[in-house]
TrEMBL record:
GO terms for molecular function: phosphatidate cytidylyltransferase activity. Pfam families: CTP_transf_1. This is Phosphatidate cytidylyltransferase. Its main location: membrane. It is a multi-pass membrane protein. One of its GO terms (biological process) is CDP-diacylglycerol biosynthetic process. Keywords: Cell membrane, Lipid biosynthesis, Lipid metabolism, Membrane, Nucleotidyltransferase, Phospholipid biosynthesis, Phospholipid metabolism, Transferase, Transmembrane, Transmembrane helix. Belongs to the CDS family. Its EC number is 2.7.7.41. Pathway: Phospholipid metabolism; CDP-diacylglycerol biosynthesis; CDP-diacylglycerol from sn-glycerol 3-phosphate: step 3/3; Lipid metabolism. The chain crosses the membrane at residues 21-49, 82-101, 108-127, 139-156, 177-194, 200-219, 249-270. InterPro entries: PC_trans.
Length: 272
């Protein structure tokens, strides 16, 4: 159950992964920093690409129309009109389910793709534009997810050891998962120092962010395994598709925005 990847190949994709990250991360940071229409435009672009990838994986027809609705859904966020946004979502969901090939499983897969992609887009926008210090919240949570990913990648490949969940993702190890959690706990401590609040809640939040991010990553891996594809796409060299890159962040955005919205005093306890 150890990591059987040859040592000389464990970091073979690192240069191309870093190159992709150096392009994607500044774009994401700029969109989140500016927020509003800028963030909505970035989400619209991401939504278009992610829906294309989902339709390709699940063999859902009308992929460009569904991708266009994904982009339109995100572009409607700054209008602050729930009726318009929900109408677009319902239209996309209806089209996906009705146009899918005959069969319960294919229709469920098509409909789930809309819920999955649209949920991640809405989660990120709400995290940034919610009734708290959204810029800080989004930047903190994004940086924690990236720290979790980096720790899991480097320590998991360097140390190896037993697999985390080989039935869903054969390359993820317990060593990487534990390193990711510890790394995010440390990030939480420094975030608390920056915000001048009790570090306990930030450390717990950092641990939770890492766990949710890794769960989102494993969930996406499980979906690809069921659709019998290695990557969701090829748009990002070294990473695969956009869904491969944002699965953890999408899960954290949904969980984080819900936690901040539902739990009284949570934002204040984080200094947000």
């Amino acid at each position: 159950m150890g990591d059987w990847t040859p040592a000389e190949r464990r970091f073979s994709e690192l240069p191309v992964r870093l190159a992709s990250a150096l392009i994607l991360i500044p774009m994401a940071l700029a969109a989140v920093w500016m927020g509003g229409w800028w963030l909505a435009a970035a989400c619209a672009l991401f939504g278009y690409v992610m829906m294309l990838e989902w339709c390709a994986m699940s063999a859902t027809p009308h992929h460009h129309l569904l991708a266009g609705l994904g982009g339109l859904f995100a572009a409607s966020f700054p209008l602050d009109n729930l009726a318009i946004t929900l109408s677009i979502a319902v239209a996309a969901l209806s089209l996906a389910v009705l146009a899918a090939r005959a069969g319960v499983h294919t229709r469920i897969a098509a409909g789930f793709g809309v819920v999955y992609v649209f949920g991640m887009l809405a989660g990120l926008y709400l995290l940034r534009e919610g009734g708290w210090e959204g810029r800080s919240a989004a930047l903190y949570f994004m940086s924690f997810v990236w720290a979790s990913d980096a720790a899991a990648y480097f320590f998991g490949r360097a140390i190896g050891g037993p697999k985390l969940l080989p039935s869903e993702s054969p390359n993820k190890t317990w060593s990487g998962a534990i390193a990711a959690v510890i790394g995010c706990a440390i990030c939480g401590y420094f975030a608390a120092m920056i915000e001048d609040v009790d570090p306990v809640i930030w450390i717990i939040s950092g641990i939770a962010i890492s766990i949710v991010a890794q769960a989102g990553d494993l969930f996406e891996s499980g979906l690809k395994r069921r659709f019998k594809v290695k990557d969701s796409g090829k748009i990002l060299p070294g990473h695969g598709g956009l869904l491969d890159r944002v699965d953890g962040l999408g899960a954290v955005s949904i969980a984080g925005s819900l936690a901040l919205f539902v739990l009284p005093g949570f934002a204040a306890s984080l200094g947000l």
